[in-house]
Amino acid sequence: MTDCWIWQRGKSGAGYGMTYVKKVGRTVYVHRLMYAAFNGVIPDGLEIDHLCGHRACWNPEHLEAVTHAENVRRGAGGPRTHCPKGHLYADHARVKSDGRRDCAACHRERERERGADRRAAKRAKEAKAA
Fold it and tell me: Can you tell me the distance from the alpha carbon of 59 to that of 7, in angstroms, rounded to the nearest whole number?
C-alpha cells in the first residue's frame, strides 16, 4: 500500500480532514471529496472507509465505499494506529488513569499551550496591577 496523505489543515473533532468548498457552500470531509473526484459519486447507502485506518488520510488508493455495517466491522477489527492529529501511537502512546490511550505528543502540546496561557494571564494581571 502507498503512503498515507495526511491532511494538514482543518480537522473535525474525530480527526477527519475537513475543507470548505465554495461551489457547494459548506464544509466537507476531504476523504469523501477525494473519493468522489477519483471514483465518481458515492453510491447511496454507502460510506467511505479508510483502508489504512487513518482518519486524516485522503489518499484515494486508501479509500473504499462500503456499507455502514462493514465500516463498523472493519473499525472494530483492531486498535487505531494513529491519533487524530496523525502521530503514530506506537511512538507516542501513553495510557491514562482510566485505561484509555492518549497521544503523548498531543498531551505535551496541550500542556505547552496551557503553560503559555497561564504565563500570559499572569503577565496581564501584573501589568494591570502596575
Answer: 9
